[in-house]
Specification:
The complex is a heterodimer of chains A (about 110) and B (about 120).
Chain A lengths: L8 H29 L4 H7 L3 H29 L3 H27 L3
Helix pairs in contact in A: 1-3, 3-4
Chain B lengths: L17 H32 L1 H12 L1 H28 L6 H24 L1
The chains are: A mainly alpha (about 110), B mainly alpha (about 120).
C-alpha cells in the first residue's frame, strides 16, 4: 500500500505550528504597543493599516493565527473526538471557517479608503 | 492491547503536577482564542468601518460585559503565549529537568496573571 496517510505530514504540521507561533511572538510587541500607546482616534487607526506593508503584515498575522488555531483544534480533537465520522467533518468545517476568516480579513484590509 | 487497564481520570480527585494544569489551560485557552476569531474579526471590521463604529468598539471594551470578556481573552492570550514560549524552550532543550520544568510552569501561571493585572491597571 502506498501512502496510507502521508508519513511526513505530521512533521510539516508540527513545523507550521512553531513557525506560526514564532511569527506571532515577533508581532506581539507591536500589537501590545498598538493597544497601549497606539492610535486613539479613528483617522490614525485607519492610517495604521493604509500602507501596503502594514496590510501584508496584518494579513500574514491573521493567517498565522488561523493556521495555528486549526492545528491546535486538530490536536485537541484527536484526543477528544474519537469518532472519525464526526472528527473529519469538524476538521473540514473548521478549515472552511478559517478560509472564510482569511478572506474576510483580506476584505477588511483592502476595502479601507 | 487486550488486557483491561485501570482507567481513572477524575480530574477533581487526582492531583496533577503543576505542569499538567499549565498544559490543560494551554489547551483551554487555545480553544477559547480559536473560537473568538470571528468575534475579533468583527470587532476589527467595525472599528475600521467608520468613526461611529470605532467609538462603538471603544465603548464596548471600556466596561461591562465587553471588558470582562476582553480580559478573559487577554488572560487566555497571555497564558497561551507564555506556555507556548515554555514549549519552544523545551524544543531547544532548555529547562527539561523536573525542577526547572515545574519552576517554569509556576512562572507561566504567575506571570500571565501579573501581566494581566499590569495591563488592566495601565
Amino acid at each position: 500500500m502506498r501512502h496510507a496517510g502521508g508519513a511526513r505530514s505530521g512533521l510539516t504540521i508540527w513545523m507550521l505550528q512553531r513557525v506560526s507561533a514564532v511569527w506571532m511572538v515577533l508581532v506581539a510587541p507591536f500589537v501590545a504597543w498598538v493597544f497601549l500607546a497606539g492610535p486613539s482616534e479613528y483617522a490614525a487607526w485607519v492610517a495604521l493599516f493604509q500602507p501596503l506593508y502594514a496590510k501584508l503584515v496584518a494579513l500574514l498575522t491573521v493567517a498565522a493565527f488561523l493556521v495555528h488555531a486549526w492545528i491546535g483544534l486538530r490536536e485537541v480533537m484527536m484526543d477528544y473526538v474519537q469518532i472519525m465520522a464526526l472528527r473529519l467533518p469538524l476538521l473540514f468545517a473548521f478549515l472552511m471557517g478559517g478560509l472564510l476568516c482569511f478572506g474576510w480579513a483580506a476584505h477588511i484590509l483592502w476595502s479601507l479608503v | 492491547m487486550s488486557r483491561k487497564r485501570p482507567f481513572y481520570l477524575n480530574l477533581l480527585q487526582i492531583w496533577l503536577p503543576v505542569g499538567g494544569y499549565v498544559s490543560i489551560l494551554h489547551r483551554a485557552s487555545g480553544v477559547l482564542l480559536s473560537l473568538a476569531i470571528p468575534a475579533l474579526l468583527w470587532l476589527w471590521s467595525l472599528s475600521l468601518s467608520s468613526v461611529e463604529g470605532f467609538a462603538l468598539v471603544q465603548g464596548m471594551l471600556r466596561g461591562g460585559p465587553g471588558l470582562v470578556l476582553g480580559l478573559v481573552l487577554l488572560w487566555a492570550f497571555l497564558h497561551h503565549l507564555l506556555a507556548g514560549l515554555r514549549h519552544l524552550g523545551f524544543d531547544l532543550g532548555w529547562g527539561e529537568s523536573r525542577l526547572a520544568a515545574r519552576r517554569s510552569a509556576w512562572l507561566t501561571l504567575l506571570f500571565s496573571l501579573v501581566i494581566l493585572l499590569g495591563l488592566t491597571l495601565s
